User: Fold this.
Amino acid sequence: MAQLDRLLAHVVAKVGSRLELKADRKPRLELKSGEYLDLLPNPLPSVMVEVLAGDVVPADLKAAWLSQGQAEFDYHLSGQTFRIRLSRYMEQPQIQAEHQGPAPIPPAASPIVPVAAPAPVAAVPVESRPAPAIVPAPSPSPLPSPRPSPTPPPAPKAAGLPAQIQGNDLAERLFAALVAQSGSDLHCTCGEPPLARIHGDMKELEGFGPLAPATLLEMMQSLANSHTWDRFQTHHDADFAYSYEAGGCRLRVNFFMDRIGPGLVCRVIPNQIPDPDKLGLPEPIKRLCSLAKGLVLVTGPTGSGKSTTLAAILDLANQKRRDHILTIEDPIEFVHPRKGCLVNQREVGTHTDSFKSGLRAALREDPDIVMVGEMRDLETIAIALETAVTGHLVFGTLHTSSAIGTIDRIVDQFPSDRQQQIRVMLADALKCVVSQTLLKKVGGGRIAALETLFISPAIANLIREGKNFQITSAMQTGRSYGQRLMNDALVELIKDKKVEPMEAYLKCPDKESFIAACKRANIPFDLRLGEVEG
Assistant:
């Protein structure tokens, strides 16, 4: 029994006329009265719509569905006929099923062909009798062509897996091993066995040998849709998000070419949006979701958990507010369902050309909260600043190692004749900078250390006057407002026995100040001993 049959049964039972299934939306039934009814309480993820379509599409149309994204056919269920239309919109699968009424009754296997009885001939002379019409007798063979079976068998597939992965068993095994070992990233390179980053360390996955270029290309093509694959073949790199439903997560995938051949890296993104309390976010950071306007930046090196922190703050806003949230990401990572807010998520390369074009268009889309996945260039930063100044709440990320360094990085992006103007805009618009880094946790796992800079009137004045070197002193005297330096956060983790001193030393941006902070906190830390032990 195909999984779609359960939904189609409601169409007949509730006297409906059409069933609509769209990615990330609830299944909707149009009644004959013109009203609409939600059949399920939760939206269907894109991969589930893909699986439902793959269940029912006939074998002769499956190739056209996968390559062209279009298919239309009749489907019979329990004596009823449905006209099924499969399509893709913005790379997202859609299913429409229109109820056509009762299915025609198929003829018997050996149909009886009625033949008229010959007229009586006794009263007619043989000479004047007309030649009898020759009526062909029903031939036992060949039989009339049978009608299609009422319930065509579904195409074979791996249960619970996306349609893209069914053609490549290697991808399934790699993803399963990655999730089973709680890995964060999967690395596949030509001539090397696959490696996973587990609790911060790169380890080979057991049971896999070196990957040949042809094998790796076949696996990569099975993961990507046609648009992404064309982009990879043209530009030799591509980014996209992939739903791995069997593992209960999504994967942020990057394809690339190097001197040896093709390669890929997959980052695990849980389907469940992280809980701020489990992440250890302090109360002042949680309150950022309630700001009416301004610019909030989450910064740190690559792989430091910026997206996770930002997703937790956005989810709090989604729960507590009744506004419009618009995100621009590359690619879409955490999927935010509608809670208290309407959430629109746009992907660079799929739904918009670039961050700057998506951000420019956002001003015409009536948002209250805008999230920019990455502020990469001068124009994106400028538009984000203007958006915050004009009364919107803007969240963004930058690759910097400290909160104060973030301010310098933004100002230095602009020509010298504009920097004073940018300082004034930044002093007015910037509300908070959260700088974070991930450290190996004692006993396994990883934990984030957070540096938080909240823009008080005194700090805003220092930014306006270009005296960023004095911000550190202002942060030390303003801890009651939530200010916290990175060294203080690291020392606190060491005192709580969550992080080793040497691990904190390697990750801190200002090592001399960190050693002094350890001495003030009476933490026995000998750098030379740490080096010997390491």
User: Anything to note?
Assistant: Residues 109-167, 530-534 have pLDDT under 50 and may be disordered. The CA atoms of residues 152 and 457 lie 70 Å apart. The chain has three domains: 4-102, 163-270, 276-484.
